[in-house]
Amino acid sequence: MPDPTDTPTQTSPWWRDAAIYQVYLRSFADGDGDGVGDIAGLRSRLPYLRDLGVDALWITPWYPSPMADAGYDVADYRDIDPLFGTLPEAEKLVDEAHELGLRVLIDLVPNHSSDQHAWFKAALAANPGSPERARYWFRPGRGPHGEQPPNNWSSRFGGPAWTRAHPSDPHDTDWYLHLFTPQQPDLNWNNPDVREEFEDVLRFWFDRGVDGFRIDVAHGLAKHPDLPDLEHPDVNGKTVIPAGQHPHWDRDEVPDIYRTWRQVADEYPGDRAFVAEAWVTHPDRLTRYLGDGVLQTAFNFDYLECPWDTTQLRIVIDTTLTAHAAVAAPATWVLSNHDVVRHVTRYGRAETSLHDAWRLHGTPTDLQLGTRRARAAALLTLALPGNAYIYQGEELGLWEIEDLPEEVLQDPARLHSGLLRDGCRVPLPWIGNQPPFGFTTGPGTPWLPQPAAWTDHTAAAEQHDPASMLTLYREALRTRRRLNTTAEQTITWREAPLGALAFDRGPTWRCVVNTGTQDVLLTGQLLLASEPLDDNRILPPDTTAWIAP
Ligand code: GLC
């Protein structure tokens, strides 16, 4: 079996500059006809991902799960949900991906398990104060009969973060903590069972050849031991509490957990790696998770949240690179994922930052403008040093589906939190003129309905169209791979007119981005542009060019 590290154009270690494709498994491709994407569907489309030119895949949770939060509620960390396939199929997938030169990251969910996990069932069946309950956060309720939650924390999805264990049992006044849905009880990372269990889970999957893990809610694992009330309750998940002092987000002790994980990863050959999903208040907080002896990478959400504006983009790029350089860790760049509004839609609105994206749901959107900016943003993202993440469908230019009928919506977050995450999770269009666009062979229908307007956005339709988003991504990924072999891992800013950004990655690769309203003059030899240029010396608004200066 060829080792992906042998790919001659890739630098080592691979996690320093990989392009990583996020497979949202239930919406990628359906191989068994039930309308839900699965491992068989993914295996059948691996050649598409190789041809796209990415280096690795991140596959969202595939474990047995009651699917209270689309699989982020794990009932068994060492198996595959029948909806998605079997463990032998998962093993085959990893091998086949490796044969095509693709690495595989899987999603680990350590902050909480499912309420159907054997440990939680045992905890509910056990008494208050029992060792079974000590693996989670059980606490007696407040009030004379324990009828009020132990503290005032809120779930990220709205409502209290506590649910009573046995509401009808007056002798058991325990409540349990869940920072997400009540079906996702938080694990207690002070408990040695929990730590040992996850180290073993890491080994279970490393033994099966996976190249690494995306760590879900990586900033949430430590809780203040006294579980104090929040003085300033979080608003929409955003905190006003000074860094490191929040009782359950990004506490100073969290990164220590990952030191042990890094040791486990380093026991294995082949540069196994992690990427943390850590929502923190500043890049300097993020880099505490990174560097020698800690994790290799973490998502840089400041970039994902940033509006389409050169001044703000430049600030985010600078602060990100400076913070990461201090710990010698590569930065990551991401524009979309399964939790946020697709960026074609975000960029097509008057307000382009992620902060406003859900509030603006259903407001007028210029998809043509959004697409043009998304093309320009893709070339910016892929020119930055570090890892670039691509959320499935962004390479087809898919936009947010904002008119899904209420009865098909499945995301639990929408009910109480203002988060609307179904619209970015609609199954991919592969081929054909009407839904299901080859996503499923039926008889099941796609678990979320696809819009008829995706006819022109199927992978098959875009494949041979020189003007398509897919063609742009393919060319950009191929060119990036080549340029990365000689590019510097830093950027040098070049003078650029107002509304534009220009930076060099060494002497052979310049990226010029125009987010303004005026044309920008280009010098040097054009390598790639996000739009066809009438004149290779003129970069129009909302366009990016790569140049050999
Ligand atoms: C992460 C996932 C999200 C999930 C949440 C709870 O933020 O990306 O989809 O709902 O964690 O596990």
Main features:
549 residues, alpha/beta, TIM Barrel, Oligo-1,6-glucosidase, domain 2, Immunoglobulin-like, eight-stranded parallel beta sheet, five-stranded antiparallel beta sheet, 18 strands, globular, disordered N terminus, binds alpha-D-glucopyranose
| Low-pLDDT residue intervals, each spanning 5 or more residues | 1-10
CATH class of the largest domain: Alpha Beta
What is the radius of gyration computed over CA atoms, rounded to a whole number of angstroms? Answer: 23 Å
Shape: globular
- Beginning-to-end CA distance, first to last residue: 40 Å
Question: How many domain units?
Answer: 3
**Largest sheet geometry:** 8 strands, parallel
Task: Walk me through the structure.
The protein has 549 residues and is of the alpha/beta class. It has 3 domains: 4-111 and 192-474, Alpha-Beta Barrel (TIM Barrel), CATH 3.20.20; 118-177, Oligo-1,6-glucosidase, domain 2 (Alpha-Beta Complex); 491-548, Sandwich (Immunoglobulin-like), CATH 2.60.40.1180. It has 13 helices and 18 strands. It has helices at 39-44, 46-52, 87-99, 118-125, 192-207, 254-266, 283-286, 301-305, 310-326, 343-346, 367-383, 459-463, 469-484, and strands at residues 19-23, 56-59, 103-108, 138-140, 162-164, 174-177, 212-215, 273-276, 297-298, 332-334, 387-391, 492-493, 500-504, 510-514, 520-521, 525-529, 538-539, 543-548. The strands form 4 sheets. The protein has an 8-stranded parallel β-sheet. A 5-stranded antiparallel β-sheet has the order 12-13-14-18-16. It has a 3-stranded antiparallel β-sheet with strand order 4-6-5, with no helix packed on it. The longest helix has 17 residues, at 310-326. The two termini are 40 Å apart. Alpha-D-glucopyranose binds at residues 69, 72, 109, 180, 216-217, 277, 338-339.
